């Protein structure tokens, strides 16, 4: 029996790509929801649900996944700490793959960022993250940029909240502090997504860059995550687990 995959936000740009990738993977499209559709019915009639809607629906969708015992693939960015806690609570009952980015290349970027941060001391190497997206994007820094910052902080044995973020520098800011991670967000045109992590020391600079040219890479990764999650026990996962790196 093929896996029945539901798509929250099926009428959007990502929803259409997800529909195509579900078919390409040999799974069955169980249905989808638009802005005013019944999400309860979607979760009840699916074996797994992919959600690329927005942060405002994450808590309700996580609760529905837990209530119906359905794996949830969550790609919404900009979640608050309360919303992330609700997702983690749902993961006690069902598999949840929550990722800032479903591109395999970005998952590898996160892994490399963590390893490099572990051996490049913050006293000598400042970490700066520059990202650019299309002009319609509403959150900044992007979820992927924040995920990259978290990977750097994790490599240094701390959390991003402990390390601190420097973003939106303007005016007479004084010298750069040692330790915090810098973020710069660029917006314009129809850029799908570009992220660069720079480790800057007095004697050298090291840069890691990922560029997305087609949103389909996110859809392909999310469907791959759904097929993988359907075979997993309850837990909170991300793309490194899907790719066998966790």
TrEMBL record:
Location of the Dihydrodipicolinate reductase N-terminal domain: 4-102
Pfam families on file: DapB_C, DapB_N
Pathway: Amino-acid biosynthesis; L-lysine biosynthesis via DAP pathway; (S)-tetrahydrodipicolinate from L-aspartate: step 4/4
Active site as annotated: 133, 137
Catalysed reactions, semicolon-separated: (S)-2,3,4,5-tetrahydrodipicolinate + NAD(+) + H2O = (2S,4S)-4-hydroxy-2,3,4,5-tetrahydrodipicolinate + NADH + H(+); (S)-2,3,4,5-tetrahydrodipicolinate + NADP(+) + H2O = (2S,4S)-4-hydroxy-2,3,4,5-tetrahydrodipicolinate + NADPH + H(+)
GO cellular component, one term: cytoplasm
Binding site for (S)-2,3,4,5-tetrahydrodipicolinate: 134, 143-144
Annotated residues for binding of NAD(+): 9-14, 75-77, 99-102
Entry's family note: Belongs to the DapB family.
Subunit-structure text: Homotetramer.
UniProt-recorded name of the protein: 4-hydroxy-tetrahydrodipicolinate reductase
Species for this entry: Teichococcus rhizosphaerae
């Amino acid at each position: 029996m093929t896996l029945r995959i539901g798509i929250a936000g099926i009428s959007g740009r990502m929803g259409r790509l997800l529909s195509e990738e579900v078919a390409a993977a040999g799974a069955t499209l169980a249905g989808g929801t638009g802005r005013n559709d019944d999400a309860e019915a979607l979760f009840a009639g699916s074996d797994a649900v992919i959600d690329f809607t927005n942060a405002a629906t994450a808590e309700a969708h996580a609760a529905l996944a837990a209530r119906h015992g359905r794996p949830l693939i969550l790609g919404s960015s900009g979640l608050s700490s309360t919303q992330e806690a609700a997702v983690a609570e749902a993961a006690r009952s069902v598999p949840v793959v929550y990722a800032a980015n479903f591109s395999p290349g970005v998952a590898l970027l996160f892994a490399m960022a963590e390893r490099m941060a572990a051996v490049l001391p913050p006293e000598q190497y400042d970490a700066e993250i520059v990202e650019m997206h299309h002009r319609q994007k509403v959150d900044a820094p992007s979820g992927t940029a924040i995920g990259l910052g978290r990977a750097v902080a994790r490599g240094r044995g701390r959390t991003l909240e402990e390390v601190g973020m420097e973003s939106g520098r303007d005016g007479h800011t004084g010298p750069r502090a040692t330790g915090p991670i810098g973020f710069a967000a660029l917006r314009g045109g129809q850029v799908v997504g570009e992220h660069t992590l720079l480790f800057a020391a007095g004697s050298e600079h090291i840069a890691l860059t990922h560029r997305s040219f087609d949103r389909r890479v996110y859809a392909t990764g999310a469907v791959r995550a759904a097929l993988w999650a359907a075979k997993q026990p309850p837990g909170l996962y991300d793309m490194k687990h899907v790719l066998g790196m966790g």
